[in-house]
Amino acid sequence: MAYILQVDFKMDGPFGEEMAAAFSELAESINHEEGFLWKIWTENADAGEAGGIYLFETKEAAEKYIGMHAKRLAGFGIPHVNSKIFSVNNALTEINHGPLG
């Protein structure tokens, strides 16, 4: 069973193309995290928020990642990170064409 990790936090920017340029190396590094399958990057410049939706192979991998990622974000000056982990219902997700890795 796969697990979704939902993350969001307050951020002053950058957003859009500037965000893509600034965080491309970070994005590449995420590909090498244990149990990582994919990530959708999220941003809302109007609200000053960013984050992502991740898919991990196991709950343990998602928990390990968010622990490391929260510390990394604190180093970027982002002290509070909201996160939730959900198990994926594969049968229903397949009906709606969700990418399951």
TrEMBL record:
Keywords associated with the record: Monooxygenase, Oxidoreductase
**The organism sits in which domain of life?**
Bacteria
Name one matching Pfam family: ydhR
A GO MF annotation of the entry reads: monooxygenase activity
Matching InterPro entries:
Dimeric_a/b-barrel, YdhR
Q: What is this protein called?
A: Putative monooxygenase ydhR
Species name: Planococcus citreus
Task: Tell me the classification of the organism that encodes this protein.
Answer: Bacteria, Bacillati, Bacillota, Bacilli, Bacillales
